Structure prediction request, 258 residues.
Amino acid sequence: MSRALVRPLPRPHAALTLLCMSFCGGGTASFRPWARSLPDDVELVLYCYPGREGRFTSPFARDWDELLADAVSALRGIAGRPYTLLGHSMGAWVAFDLAVRADRAGLAPPQSLIVSAADAPTRWKEDRDAPPTVRDGDEDLIDWMSANGQLSDGARADPEIMQIAVEILRADMQVMDTYRYRAGERARVPLHFLHGEEDHLDGPAATERWRQLGTAGFTSTRLPGGHFYTPEVWARLPGHVSSLRPAPHEDAAAPVTA
Prediction:
């Protein structure tokens, strides 16, 4: 079995797979508790980027195309039954590009694409100059991860954990810096955009940019909290997205309470 795919609670007879892509500098840990929140007929599968967790001995991807080639290879392991792609932050771009590349690779497309807490990839130039950047010092990156809820106070007290966290974050940022949106690319599946009320994103503008990248229906939902929403919303997020069936031109912009 591929180490790129993590199944926290295997459900081999599930009718739908929810395949999740992590944020910059992240792994699968933040998503694993979702497995028990999903309906019995939905299996949670997590894509583990190279260089962390069970793939710690694998080299980091050197650039975006290498990462996506690895993701497409992993996708072959679940594309035999209906699946939905969900990506958070950096993972939103990975999920979008994976949906595009699945078609080229002759794989079944996802039933839907859910992009969370990220601006559209058409903003790749602007994103390269937004914090954090590969030019930042280690302490700046640690402060950024802490402010965005990616590090606990306990983790900050462990130098070894901090060294690994910074190394992974830098590797992911370097990959992100090689991304280039290819003009005209669209996701030919229903697309749903999730964003936090208190996140740094310009919600209405980002919503409109994402809307232009879908061709089979679009929805947008504003959720309480910041980049990772509130703990309550994050904990039940899979229960919200697993039932999504976006309808063309629908825009659910009202806040969803925890």
